[in-house]
Amino acid sequence: MAETEAQLLLGVGLIEKDTNGDALWVWCYPSTTAELRDLLLRKCCLTAKSNQLHTFLFGQYRLTWFYVTTMEVPDSSALKKVTHFSIVLTTKDFNPEKYAAFTRILCRIYLKYGSPVKMMESYISVLTKGICQSEENGSFLSKDFDVRKAYLAGSIKDIISQFGMETVILYTALMLKKRIVVYHPRIETIQEFTRTLPALVWHRQDWSILHPYVHLNDDELEALKMCPGYIAGFIDSEVSNRLDLYDVYVNLPESEITVSQQVKEAMTMGKLHKEIGQLIVQSAEDTEKSNSQVVKDISLKTKEILTNLASFTEVLHDGEKPSLNFEALKQKRFPPATENFLYHLAAAEQMLKI
């Protein structure tokens, strides 16, 4: 356990907002770059023009996950010149519930002592032993937080309830590793929605494609554009005009999904998509089924498609990975939209290059 945490935890930092209204990066362990400090100051709600308090935020930047818990300082606290503060954890893994629990404990410790020293002791304890415990501030045990629970924490049924048959557009975009941008003005909503989407392609169990809180900032957009396919969440409605950022645009407040012109050919819907869409909707509407069971139903259908696709692959040379036999696919005489989907899926699964 200790070795695992030592591999996953990257650092802890502290941002304070003082009685003058200034938000400053005041401490970190072991160290961080100026670039990451600027990013985290931008992400935490203490530097925002509005006074809205977001108790917990998370996101990813250049393969580093960040988790930010923010608290208001009560009058009884040892922190006399501070009105609010944020504890920031940077890690290599996606697990919001785990790091929300840990940062809450660190916040309580900082409120009590008003010094980072005690907070750092708990951080080191988790780093080396995977545990920190205190009767007053609560206990944290890393092994209590299975990453698979984090993957299934969102409600796939809620997404399907909102978008119905159009959910298959999101499924197709994910299967083909397209760029999905999601907009909503409320941070918590955008994070809850985006974190759930990778479950539609459960066979990959890849949450590295998730960027749940992105600003229209040059550094962040440059980093995002380096990713071949992603799910990116924005709270700025101006993102709808950034056609260079997305293949599929989701306007959550309006429950609208827009497919960009540049991928319409790859995203053409046909009989197979209708079949998948119906399965998705019927599974979600079954009140007896949990979210995880709906995810399993979609995953089983995905495996069926991939097995079918694998039957059209061949190994041309010893030692090479299988590639798509396009002639064999043609001979099967699938409907054009199905053939088109399988062809682009083969490219996404790296069975051929197009």
What does this structure look like?
- Its main location: other.
- InterPro entries: FAM45, Tripartite_DENN.
- Residues 1-354 form the UDENN domain.
- Keywords: Endosome, Guanine-nucleotide releasing factor.
- The protein has 354 residues and is an alpha+beta fold.
- It has helices at 2-8, 34-43, 96-113, 116-129, 147-151, 156-163, 167-175, 187-196, 218-225, 271-285, 291-310, 326-331, 336-348, and strands spanning 9-18, 23-29, 56-61, 64-72, 82-91, 131-134, 138-141, 179-183, 210-211, 230-234, 248-251, 256-259, 313-314, 323-324.
- The strands form four sheets. It has a five-stranded antiparallel beta sheet, with helices on both faces.
- The mean pLDDT is 91.
Strand percentage: 15-25%
Which percent range fits the helix content? 40-55%
Major β-sheet strand ordering? 2-1-5-4-3
The shape, in one word, is elongated
SSE succession: HEEHEEEHHEEHHHEHEHEEEHHEEHH
Largest sheet: 5 strands, antiparallel
The structure class reads alpha+beta
Number of strands: 14
- Let me know the average pLDDT: 91
Radius of gyration: 23 Å
- Segments where pLDDT lies below 50 for 5+ residues? none
Count of alpha and pi helical runs: 13
Termini Cα gap: 43 Å
